[in-house]
Amino acid sequence: MKRVVVLLMLLAGCGADGEPVPPTMNANVGVGSSGTHVGGALGWNLGKVGLTVGF
Question: What superkingdom does the record give (predicted)?
Fold first, then answer.
């Protein structure tokens, strides 16, 4: 429970409770001798805190 409270305090302190922030996204396609590869990433930046998930 303490960790949740600390996390919420950090997010509120960095301005994450303000305006909604749109996610960022990138995608790439590669073609080579070994075949075709598809990948990308989806991320959110909330003030000084960021989260990116690659696929």
Answer: Bacteria
Q: Can you give the pTM of this predicted structure?
A: 0.46
pLDDT at position 40 is 93
Report pLDDT digits (tens) over 13-26: 555 555 666 778 88
3-state secondary structure of 30: strand
CA distances 53 to 12, 32, 45, 46, 50, Å, are 23, 24, 12, 15, 10
Decide: helix, strand or coil at residue 52.
strand
